[in-house]
């Protein structure tokens, strides 16, 4: 159900079976898919995804797995962060946190843990690792009001998508992944997400099924890929081309070793003419 259909749900707790709220996975209103350069996962990325999904680490207590997870997260320059439920921010109660690093995927059962401990909250409040999120305003509102945590170092894939499309039209994480990575929506869901029980759809019921853990892990991993495609495949494409042109500058010149040696003198500025020092990312947005 779309949140606009039942505004009173905002004032209810998201973990209620009678709640009409929506989860992060709910589809936003239809919007115009324009300007996004799509790029499917490469074969080795697909293989890596499958391997990572087979070794999701589900954490329900502060044991060795918990501390090893924090060590891994601390060593990252960026992580992908997913929280359920979070769609209505402060009006929700955090049930699970999914974090994907470069090698592992962790799902923290906040209900079983009892709270978000200082060791994890300090990582969330640090500028590094950067946190890749979608609809970060909702997640940050939840964490600020329910856990007194101010998340820092945020990279929001929704914001990136708006810049790429030059359009502020709403788009859920699943829709953004489907559009940018050419993955069918049917592969980004599970039966539980369509369940008539709100506690199942919002991941607040227990026990969590294997399919629920798998879809959380999958979306966290793909959210990181989404960020990569939006930044390097869309927003920074001109910058990438400048880099390519600059890196092959000497190849354009004579093969004379002597001439190239002169061009490599310490004060030589050869190649810099291909760099647009006034390069700017367009942030103009439509009124839609």
Automatic annotation (TrEMBL):
Signal sequence segment: none
One example of a Gene Ontology biological process annotation: piRNA processing
Superkingdom of source: Eukaryota
GO terms, molecular function: nucleic acid binding
Gene Ontology cellular-component terms listed: PET complex
Protein name: Protein Exd1 homolog
Organism (species): Drosophila albomicans (Fruit fly)
Lineage: Eukaryota, Metazoa, Ecdysozoa, Arthropoda, Hexapoda
């Amino acid at each position: 159900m779309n949140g606009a259909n039942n505004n009173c749900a905002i004032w209810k707790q998201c973990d209620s079976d009678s709640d009409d709220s929506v989860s992060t996975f709910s589809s936003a209103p239809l919007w115009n898919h324009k300007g996004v350069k799509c790029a499917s996962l490469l074969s080795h990325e697909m293989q890596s995804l499958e391997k990572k999904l087979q070794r999701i680490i589900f954490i329900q207590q502060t044991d060795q797995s918990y501390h090893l997870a924090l060590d891994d997260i601390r060593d990252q320059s960026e992580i992908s962060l997913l929280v359920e439920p979070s769609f209505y921010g402060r009006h929700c109660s955090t049930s699970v946190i999914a974090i994907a690093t470069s090698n592992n995927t962790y799902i923290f059962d906040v209900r079983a843990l009892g709270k978000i401990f200082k060791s994890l909250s300090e990582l969330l409040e640090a500028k590094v690792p950067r946190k890749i999120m979608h609809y970060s305003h909702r997640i940050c509102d939840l964490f600020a009001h329910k856990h007194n945590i101010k998340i820092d170092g945020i990279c929001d894939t929704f914001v990136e998508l708006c810049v790429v499309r030059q359009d502020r039209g709403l788009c859920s994480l699943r829709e953004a992944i489907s559009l940018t990575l050419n993955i069918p929506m049917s592969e980004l869901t599970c039966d539980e997400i369509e369940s008539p029980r709100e506690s199942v759809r919002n991941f607040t019921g227990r026990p969590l099924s294997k399919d629920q853990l798998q879809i959380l892990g999958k979306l966290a991993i793909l959210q990181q890929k989404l960020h990569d495609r939006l930044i390097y495949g869309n927003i920074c494409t001109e910058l990438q081309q400048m880099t390519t042109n600059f890196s092959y500058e000497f190849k354009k010149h004579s093969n004379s070793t002597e001439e190239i040696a002169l061009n490599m003198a310490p004060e030589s500025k050869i190649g810099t003419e291909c760099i647009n020092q006034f390069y700017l990312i367009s942030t103009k947005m439509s009124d839609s």
